[in-house]
TrEMBL record:
Region (Disordered): 1-23, 60-84, 783-804
Source species taxonomy: Bacteria, Pseudomonadati, Pseudomonadota, Alphaproteobacteria, Sphingomonadales
Native species: Sphingomonas floccifaciens
The protein's name in its UniProt record: Alkaline phosphatase PhoX
Gene3D superfamilies in UniProt: 2.60.40.3010
PANTHER family: DUF839 DOMAIN-CONTAINING PROTEIN (PTHR35399:SF2), SLR8030 PROTEIN (PTHR35399)
Transmembrane segments: none
Biased composition range(s): Polar residues: 783-797
Sequence ranges of Low complexity compositional bias: 72-84
InterPro entries in UniProt: PhoX
């Protein structure tokens, strides 16, 4: 025992010399100099400058020992946006620790996994510059003494921390080390309790309650933890809404498609029709992190080409939509060839009808004579010229003579008027369809103000209160255009929570201005309005005599031709940077781009062996920034973010982005930025790029890349020399963005002969959903070329027919996918 020598003081009559604690000792302990250390600036300084342990041991003012907690919360550290930060503290005491806690002191708000105990973690938020976050650990002993210590974590801007996946031709989905991939939702999977499991031998029926074929664009719509209430913040339970673009006939039937005397069997055709369209399916994450879909989900739904739809906007009721099914032009049936997508902030999904024209039978040798010259011009411009239709559905002789399910695919003018046949049925397709995933009782609506084309996506720009919102749309065909629709109604943030969601679509999507883009060689551009009575869009136009605005919107390709829009290299998906508002556009490729018709926005024509034609084989990604950073702008600046090319191609005129083996790609298609609700869509947002390629498949299966792009204007002007087959050269000047370098990496390679398409994440960014389309597309029943997804676990699964499917990708450390 330590002895103490106390001198006499006035009033000290006697002294209790036992070891018990006096009142004055208690007061001294409670307010000693060390309490300032525990709760004040000194504690913070020790943590920041390397003090791993903050100790309450030492002498008190009376020379005694201090029993209060000794704690550690680690040294200051550094990490990047999107990474998981784990803090482990220690706390010891001569007595016992009564309570411990973590709290945030400063920096961008984060969610701590635990505020009690000795361990906590959080996801580093998205930042544009290095930003400190200070976390405080506190421990209280059984006598009420509290010690605190702070640690600082410096958050660096987002970086691609994963190792690039090597190019490969394996029959699995390959992801980087530190990631897992699992299969969630496959073609044919049942989405009702009464639908049997999928046998995958060609005998399955009932696709109106099964996952459709060829999964494409998808979007996550959050659900509350229980019930069917919308909760856009929930990351563990929600609805996946996805497109089913087309079908793989070979594997849908026991021995491929058949016909009898040139007529398709009714049962086969019905299966094929129902395998198109859209899925709405409930998915959820278990406590162990695994994902599954709910076969009996109350909101599960299929929208097929047979589902009733309604028309809205300027074309509703137009004679251009009159058919035997809808004599007044206000109703329709279904949606088809749904490729890319979009969304609205009021909680609806936008699906886009792409290559619809080829589904219709219209032999021109017979039908042109029945049509007016104006009709022939319009039908030819949209490609409604097939003599049989893609799958021969018009040849079906229905068992019920009143059933027009199959007859409507015959677009010939055979009746006395448009209400007696289906000559106008092609005009019912090529639109953007809005649907409410939270209410299966609602009828999807085709929003005609957004125009009719090979719609490839309909992605919104920024929603700013008091400003008219806009949606950006590509028209996926060679030498087609980029469009923008600007609503006539300024955005009101309160409408995001509306419960009558399709009424919000009426408000914002049924009235506005459709524009088409014209690109200038100096890096500027103009949005040209497609409005009846303006810029030659009149009844007296010699090329096509427009009758009214409904005619302009139904035939907006012709309108864009007339106003002088810039022909692009297959404009496909659009995506908008959630921080800068810049719009990105994939230009997949163009077999018709020659050295004679290159321009600044489409500047390359070249050979890419083994294809010796001259064309833009590998595509590129263009971006634009609206003047004044407003969706209402009618002018913009542009450049080219990245050029697709093999790393072995000429860097002077072809591989203009200086791609290497870690990031070379070809034919960009799918495009998506991380959500603004997590680090992948904050600071410097993450861009996902997916490919649909044939020119690069001699080196690798199709792929998905992650990028952290810069901004419009971060590069320089570049002169490209192009050649033709005769060896003659021409030059084109373009604007090339900053070389991507390590800010572009290959993240995923798909299975054999697939397309990688469709991507979204949960709001927290910790789960990524990706669609794999048409694996084994070059195979047949006798020569199955892919066994995916059955092959995903073992790498080989002989005998299994391939199926399109949705996969789930997660980081093993629980961080943001891609960062």
């Amino acid at each position: 025992m330590t002895s103490f020598d106390f001198g006499y003081t006035d009033g000290d009559v006697d002294t209790n010399r036992s070891g018990g604690e006096s009142l004055s000792d208690m007061i001294d302990r409670r307010y000693s100099r060390r309490d300032a250390l525990r709760g004040g600036a000194s504690a913070a300084a020790m943590a920041v400058f390397g003090g791993a342990v903050l100790s309450a041991c030492g002498e008190d003012k009376m020379g005694g020992s201090d029993p209060r907690p000794t704690i550690s919360v680690g040294q200051s550290s550094q990490t990047t946006s999107g990474s998981r930060v784990t803090l482990t503290a220690t706390a010891t005491d001569n007595g016992s620790i009564a309570a411990t806690s973590f709290s945030q002191v400063s920096g961008p708000a984060v969610t701590l996994s635990s505020t009690t105990g000795l361990t906590t973690s959080f996801i580093a938020p998205g930042v544009a510059t290095t930003t400190p976050i200070v976390i405080r650990f506190s421990a209280t002993d059984d006598k009420g003494g509290t010690t605190t210590a702070d640690t600082t974590i410096n958050i660096e801007p987002a970086a691609l921390t994963f190792s690039a996946v090597a190019k490969n031709k394996n029959d699995v989905v390959t992801v980087p080390a530190g990631y897992t991939v699992s299969v969630l939702y496959r073609c044919g999977d049942p989405i009702s309790a009464s639908t049997p499991a999928y046998k995958n031998d060609g005998t399955d029926t009932g696709f109106s309650t099964r996952a459709g074929d060829n999964h494409d664009a998808l979007h996550w719509f959050g659900l509350a933890a229980s019930g069917n209430t919308r909760d856009e913040t929930n990351s563990t339970r929600g609805l996946l809404v996805m497109n089913h673009e087309y079908i793989f006939q070979t594997y849908l039937h026991p021995n491929g498609p058949t016909s009898v005397n040139g007529a398709r069997p009714e049962s086969e055709a019905l299966k094929e029709i129902e395998a198109h369209g859209v899925s709405v399916v409930e998915v959820s994450q278990a406590a162990n992190g695994a994902w599954s879909y709910n076969q009996s989900g109350a909101l599960n739904r299929r929208i097929t080409p047979n589902t009733p739809t309604a028309f809205s906007g300027p074309v509703r009721g137009s004679s251009l939509l009159f058919t035997a099914y809808s004599p007044t032009g206000v109703a329709g049936r279904g949606t088809i060839n749904n490729c890319a997508n979009g969304y609205t902030p009021w909680g609806t999904s936008l699906t886009c009808e792409e290559n619809w024209a080829g589904y219709f039978r219209r032999p021109t040798s017979a039908d042109n004579a029945r049509r007016s010259a104006k009709e022939v011009t319009a039908l030819a411009r949209y490609g409604v010229t097939s003599s049989s239709g893609n799958y021969g559905w018009a040849t079906v002789v229905a068992s019920d003579s009143t059933n027009t399910t199959f007859r409507r695919w015959d677009a010939q003018a055979t009746g006395a008027s448009a209400t007696a046949d289906f000559r106008n049925e092609p005009n019912q397709y090529g639109w953007v369809l809005e649907m409410d995933p939270y209410d299966p009782s609602t009828t999807p609506r085709k929003r005609t103000a957004l125009g009719r084309m090979n719609h490839e996506g309909c992605w919104p720009g920024a929603f700013v209160a008091g400003r008219k919102p806009a949606w950006y749309m590509g028209d996926d065909a060679r030498n087609e255009y980029l469009y923008k629709f600007v609503s006539a109604t300024a955005w009101s943030a309160s409408d995001a929570g509306a419960t009558d969601r399709l009424a919000m679509g009426d408000k914002y999507l049924d009235s506005g201005t459709l524009y088409v883009a014209k690109f200038a060689a100096d890096g500027t551009g103009t949005w040209l309005p497609l409005v009846f009575g303006q810029n030659g869009l009149t009844a007296s136009n010699a090329t096509y005599a427009f009758a009214d605005q409904a005619d302009v919107l139904t035939h907006c390709r012709l309108a864009a031709d007339i106003v002088g829009a810039t022909k692009m290299d297959r404009p496909e998906w659009t995506a908008v940077n959630p921080v800068t508002g810049e719009m990105y556009l994939t230009l997949t490729n163009n077999s018709q781009r020659t050295s004679a018709n290159t321009d600044a926005a489409n500047p390359r024509s070249y050979q890419d062996a083994p294809n010796f034609s001259y064309a833009n084989h590998n595509g590129h990604i263009l971006r634009l920034r609206e003047s004044g950073d407003t969706t209402e702008a009618t002018a913009f600046r542009w450049d080219i973010y990245a050029f697709g090319a093999g790393s072995d191609l000429n860097a002077q005129n072809i591989n203009l982005s200086n791609l290497d083996a870690s990031n070379d790609f070809s034919s960009p298609d799918g495009l998506w930025f991380g959500r603004a609700t997590n680090a992948s869509g904050q600071g410097n947002p993450l861009l996902w790029i997916q490919t649909d390629d044939g020119a690069f498949t001699d080196q690798t299966n199709n792929q998905m890349l992650a990028a952290i792009p810069g901004t419009v204007g971060d590069g320089a002007m570049r002169t490209v020399t192009n050649f033709n087959a005769a060896g003659a050269s021409t030059t084109t000047t373009t604007i090339v963005g900053k070389t991507p370098g390590a800010s572009l990496k290959r993240f995923l390679v798909g299975p054999v002969q697939c397309e990688v398409t469709g991507v979204d994440s949960t709001p927290d960014g910790r789960t990524l959903f990706v669609n794999i389309q048409h694996p084994g597309e070059d195979g047949s029943i006798s020569n199955i070329t892919s066994n995916w997804p059955a092959s995903q676990q073992t790498g080989s699964a002989p005998g299994n027919r391939p199926r399109s499917a949705t996969v789930v990708i997660q980081r093993t450390d629980g961080g943001i996918v891609g960062l």
